[in-house]
Amino acid sequence: xxxxxxxxxxxxxxxxxxxxxxxxxxxxxxxxxxxxxxxxxxxxxxxxxxxxxxxxxxxxxxxxxxxxxxxxxxxxxxxxxxxxxxxxxxxxxxxxxxxxxxxxxxxxxxxxxxxxxxxxxxxxxxxxxxxxxxxxxxxxxxxxxxxxxxxxxxxxxxxxxxxxxxxxxxxxxxxxxxxxxxxxxxxxxxxxxxxxxxxxxxxxxxxxxxxxxxxxxxxxxxxxxxxxxxxxxxxxxxxxxxxxxxxxxxxxxxxxxxxxxxxxxxxxxxxxxxxxxxxxxxxxxxxxxxxxxxxxxxxxxxxxxxxxxxxxxxxxxxxxxxxxxxxxxxxxxxxxxxxxxxxxxxxxxxxxxxxxxxxxxxxxxxxxxxxxxxxxxxxxxxxxxxxxxxxxxxxxxxxxxxxxxxxxxxxxxxxxxxxxxxxxxxxxxxxxxxxxxxxxxxxxxxxxxxxxxxxxxxxxxxxxxxxxxxxxxxxxxxxxxxxxxxxxxxxxxxxxxxxxxxxxxxxxxxx
Length: 511
Known about the structure:
This protein is an alpha+beta fold. It contains 16 helices and 22 strands. About 30% of the residues lie in helices and about 25% in strands. A hairpin with a 4-residue loop joins strand 5 and strand 6 (about 95-100). It is globular, with a radius of gyration of 23 Å. It starts with 14 loop residues before the first strand and ends with a strand.
């Protein structure tokens, strides 16, 4: 179980353990008639609301409401002004940003260049998101004045603006971070349209409208993120009128909702990829033949049809088709048990082997793992499913304690550098993203070139080749890419799905 330390100094704790007794006194209709509160159902509880301490989807969805970044990416993944109203490239490594004036943090402090420098220096050192910002040169962040700052990278970096739009670039207030100390992740302070109010551990996170927001104010007074891990439970709460929006509708439930007049299923392309990863530093998965054999032994078409009900596309490589420089010439691994057995024999495992598959307590992933276990029996592999609590799961896969594991990755900024570098560069082992512990000198070289190359066409060639190598060496069982699929009640207006899955809620209102 994910445990938060309940020690707070100098202020009262905003945390409670969930007590549903008062909620139960309200009827479902009464809950949704509260026009000032938007109820959103999502999966697990957030790990932290410190943008430098979490990089998972659930945490980031809340973080994106509380904080803002220097630049934003719109629904078409185009860069737009954020807390920086303009920027100018000084040379091939330096950009000068002009900041908006009159921006306040939720604690009343004014946002200035000092906050930008503090944020970036802190983020670079983060074990969770340092991979997003680490190309920034900490010695070349220059404050020109309160509203002008120059940021330089260690070498040319074509993805720097996209990376600054990542949640890792969420601007922090030094005073708030210092005062909260180790408890900052449970007492977040940003500049966003919503500010943090209360965290009911393992139940919900509540945000309230920030009345001193510098831009167009939020259209609801409160957002309640309900943490509902089980897809079926989240579907039931949405169907029964307890939620306005239900994130990540299971493929099993799409048709059930499409038959209901009072709700809409919204679907759009995402930037996510689901994969089954190998610990490539551990025998027998340090042998490419074993990894390829398992790819051939898994009938991914059948899994997508059975579990995903056609709401996904079988992956042929590590990136989804909506990511720039996606290699559409790659073919998925075919289902070929004969070929798989031959590769296992060549690798020295003619009679198979024993292994374990880690999943978190998500029923869909458990179902997938169950099918994989049955299919692997065809080539003599006996696999045991281990269901691991989410926090322990992330820590364990970062530390290399696993054999095989199921996980997903969102290329949130739409740039292949983010989707490939953190997942496959040998400098990014563990918490930085590379949980397969995959290492290939040629891949490292190409990824380094792609990062620094300014010419988009040359850059694209590097990433196309990287995808070919990764597909061949198979550190993953390439699984599928899926759409953003969310349930929205018809009285909810202004909800727009972002390809990253981190949907901005400040423009949402209720009729």
